[in-house]
Structures are given as C-alpha cells and as structure tokens.
Amino acid sequence: MSYFNFNIFTFFLNFIFIFANFIPDSRWGHTSVLVDKKLYISGGLSLTNWKEFFYLDVSQHFAITALQWNDLTFTGPTLDVGSSIKQQWANVTNVGNQPTGRSQISCAKFGNGSIAIFAGYFNYVNDSKNDLWIFDSLALTWSLKNASNAPPDIWAYRAITLPDDAILYIGVPFMLPLYDSTTNTWKNLNTTGPTPPSRHYFSAVLTSDKRIKIFGGSSDNSSILGDL
Ligand SMILES: *[C@@H]1O[C@H](CO)[C@@H](O)[C@H](O)[C@H]1NC(C)=O
Ligand SMILES: *[C@@H]1O[C@H](CO)[C@@H](O)[C@H](O)[C@H]1NC(C)=O
Ligand SMILES: *[C@@H]1O[C@H](CO)[C@@H](O)[C@H](O)[C@H]1NC(C)=O
Ligand SMILES: *[C@@H]1O[C@H](CO)[C@@H](O)[C@H](O)[C@H]1NC(C)=O
Ligand SMILES: *[C@@H]1O[C@H](CO)[C@@H](O)[C@H](O)[C@H]1NC(C)=O
Ligand SMILES: *[C@@H]1O[C@H](CO)[C@@H](O)[C@H](O)[C@H]1NC(C)=O
C-alpha cells in the first residue's frame, strides 16, 4: 500500500470509528444498574427513542466529554417465550398501616429483606409528606419512621443504599440527605467542590469503590440532560 493509499485508508477507518461511536440522546425517567464494571442504562424518555439499551465500560479510563457508549438496543423481532413458563403477578396483601399511594419514588433495599420508600408525588398534587416507610417483605408489614430532621419532601429523586444500610437521597435542589437506619435519624451530607446541575428523573448507581454515578434526567428548567 502506498503512503497516500494508507492515509486514505486510515482516514476512512477514523471516519468509521468516529461515526460508529454510539451517542445516546439526553433522557429522563430511565434506569441504570452497574454489573461487572459496566454501567447499563435502559429506557427513559428522549426526543427520539425510549427503547434504547446501552452501556459504558467504567473499568477503562474515560473522558467525560467523549464517553465510549456501547449500544445493545435489540432491533430484531420480539421473542415469543411460549406459554410453558409461568409468568404472573400476584398482589401482596399487607397487614396493618400502610403508606398512601404515590409516584416518583425510588425504593432502597436493606440486607434483611426490607425496603424503604420516602416522600414522592401524591395524586399528582404537590402535597408535602416527607414520610419514610419501611416494608418488611417477610412479615408483610409497613412501619412509619418518624425520624427527626427529615428533609423537605422530594420526588423523582434517587435513593442509594450504602454498605452500612444508610440511605443517601439525591434530589432537587442538589442536597444529600442521609437516613441512618441504625439510629433512625436524618443528617445532611456536605460536599466540597462543584456540584452537578440539579435534576429530577435521573439514574444513579453506587460503585464498589464508593462513588455514585448519575446520568441524565430533567433539569430545573425542564431541559433534558445527557451528562454522566
Ligand atoms: C390486584 O389488585 C388489583 C386491585 O384490586 C386488581 O385489579 C388486580 O386484578 C389484582 N391482581 C391479581 C393478580 O390478583
Ligand atoms: C412543592 O411545594 C413546595 C412548598 O410550597 C415548593 O417549595 C416546591 O418547589 C414545590 N414542588 C413542586 C414540584 O412543585
Ligand atoms: C409516627 O407518627 C405517627 C403519626 O403521628 C404515629 O401514628 C406513629 O405511631 C409514629 N410511629 C413511631 C414509630 O413513632
Ligand atoms: C431491617 O433493616 C432496617 C434498616 O436497618 C430496619 O429499619 C428494619 O427494622 C429491619 N427489619 C427487621 C425485620 O429487622
Ligand atoms: C453540614 O453542615 C451543616 C452546616 O454547617 C452542619 O450543621 C451539619 O452538621 C453538617 N453535616 C455533616 C454530616 O457534617
Ligand atoms: C437549563 O439547565 C441546564 C442544566 O443546568 C443548563 O445546561 C442549560 O443551559 C439551561 N437551559 C436554559 C435554557 O437555561
């Protein structure tokens, strides 16, 4: 191959690599999970697509301005899994007190089979209820925790369970209330340095090296974000 041809060849190769790089749309209302150092992101609402499924390999060094996303969106025909597998939902009948219905919550899970929900949106009205409820999935009972110093009601936030079973709530405005489940108290974590723009409907995961990665969401001024 002559020098000239080689240059043309590498030029096209670069061209292909640049254009083959998958760049997901900004989105909100999606979900993410971290498995084997890969951050998988699924669904959400963007201007063009709501079925995308993609990941970022976070074991590699990455530049925040040029993320190497990998697209896994399934484009083939829908599989018919057949009727031999029993796929059904059952209603759980809990006993005793229970929280009022709500949306736009994020559920945190503890190591002992319990889950926690906090605040949220109530029948689409801005009804402030900064209540924290814990559901024991084994006894099927709810309990209301009246922990002092609870943050103002938040909605479309993300809850992250930390290794010590404390729950960190990431919400709007960008504050970091922490529920300490062992002492049943709230405190606010103070951060240093710049903070990301505040947002709703984003996704968040905790990494094994104790970082939290957030992606996308809807900002205070309703613009849709695509930043990590
Ligand atoms: C669960 O309860 C809802 C509301 O009462 C009802 O519409 C639904 O059919 C129930 N589902 C099952 C699987 O029993
Ligand atoms: C809900 O009401 C509180 C207090 O009036 C206000 O600060 C907050 O911005 C409202 N939230 C929404 C989503 O409208
Ligand atoms: C929390 O407050 C509610 C309402 O005031 C009360 O009914 C409930 O017993 C309290 N729960 C605890 C664990 O103190
Ligand atoms: C499970 O753990 C949570 C958080 O520490 C606690 O609030 C709850 O009471 C525990 N549930 C049981 C059944 O021990
Ligand atoms: C964060 O700062 C506030 C105000 O300075 C302080 O009251 C609070 O104790 C701090 N929180 C923590 C977890 O250190
Ligand atoms: C909306 O907020 C986002 C995030 O803070 C910012 O990047 C963007 O410039 C803002 N857009 C407008 C129109 O103010």
TrEMBL record:
Upper lineage: Eukaryota, Fungi, Fungi incertae sedis, Mucoromycota, Glomeromycotina
Region forming the signal peptide: none
Transmembrane segments: 6-23
Protein name: Galactose oxidase
Keyword Repeat: yes
Keywords from the UniProt entry: Kelch repeat, Membrane, Repeat, Transmembrane, Transmembrane helix
